[in-house]
Amino acid sequence: MRRRDEGAIAVVAAVAFVPLCLMVAIVVDAGRVWVGRTRLQNSVEAAAIAAAQTWMTQGQACSSTSMSVISRDGSAPTSVQCTVTGSNTSGVTRVTATEPIGLTFATLVGRSSSTVTASTGVRIGALGSTVGVWPFGLCSQVKAVSDWIASGMTTATSTVIRFEDQNQRCGGTVSGNWGVLDFNGGSSSNAETKDWVDNGYLGVVKVGDWITGSPGAPSGSLDIQSIVGKSVVMPMYSTPRLSGSNVEYHIVGFAKARVDAVQFTGSTSSRSIRITLQKGTITGSSSSLGGTNFGLVGVGVCSLDSTGSCT
């Protein structure tokens, strides 16, 4: 006689249904926690960057306006902590937040939420890379720069710096206070250089780069009067090497300067630029930290939760 197995299958299905439902419940609640924590981490990072930028540019540490960023993408933290160490030109902003994430199926066992925590550290410091750089590199050892740093970068003295100076080798083998840089290794025509003078070089220039250029004064036909009165980002170099049009300049940092006057005509030895070094900030995403501090600073994320160090 054939045995009927419908009842056995029903029992097996019923037994299997319980762990299957439990697994689905765990996956759903775990997904809610993961989404909530990711959202909170992104919000904390945005708030830490905003706090660092406000501290850097306005001197306000952990302002309420910057902290409000943390709730813009739907996060609803119940606890937010913001701390700063150091100064607003060389310091660290840290933001930590906690938020309860509501659970769906865990309520069946008496648990209605899971608390997640996220933190971000943002460092303020000298630029290690940036875009929009001027094509005239300045020797980092000229007296105007040394005096600027020695003053704590607080003076506002307009200084004439001549292109040619046989006594200034900037720690290398090439004399001169300035170098006309060829960022892309092209023909370095006056038209290209003029474009970089007016708009800055659109590519990224990094500390540690060796950039080909020409020592001495630029061509007298290069008219840059349109830049007078405006501020530019200057690449600072040291230890230039090789010779002629193959000179290479070692980038060690970046400075902000207002161009007060230019003299590109007359004898080569009389051509010069009058500048006033200034403090400044750059907050764009194309920048990073790591150069010598010449007064131009930016921000960069240095830690996410337990990853990375801000020390």
Characterization of the model:
The strands form two sheets. Strands 1, 2, 3, 7, 12, 13 and 15 form a seven-stranded mixed β-sheet that branches. It is elongated, with a radius of gyration of 29 Å. With 311 residues, it is an alpha+beta fold. The protein folds into two domains: 6-126; 132-286, no CATH class. Strand 10 (247-263) and strand 11 (272-278) form a beta hairpin. It has helices at residues 6-58, 64-67, 143-150, 190-199, and strands at 79-86, 91-102, 113-130, 136-139, 158-162, 178-181, 205-206, 210-215, 231-241, 247-263, 272-278, 280-282, 288-289, 292-293, 296-304.
What is the global morphology? elongated
Q: Let me know the largest β-sheet.
A: 7 strands, mixed
Helix content: 10-25%
Judged by helices, strands and strand pairing, the structural class is alpha+beta
Mean pLDDT across residues: 86
Number of helices: 4
Q: So what's the oligomer here?
A: single chain
Which H/E pattern describes the elements? HHEEEEHEEHEEEEEEEEE
Which parts are unreliable, with pLDDT below 50 for 5 consecutive residues or more? none
Number of strand elements? 15
**Strand share of the residues?**
35-45%
**How many structural domains does the protein architecture include?**
2
Alpha carbon gyration radius: 29 Å
End-to-end C-alpha gap: 81 Å
Secondary structure elements and their pairing?
Elements: H1 6-58, H2 64-67, E1 79-86, E2 91-102, E3 113-130, E4 136-139, H3 143-150, E5 158-162, E6 178-181, H4 190-199, E7 205-206, E8 210-215, E9 231-241, E10 247-263, E11 272-278, E12 280-282, E13 288-289, E14 292-293, E15 296-304
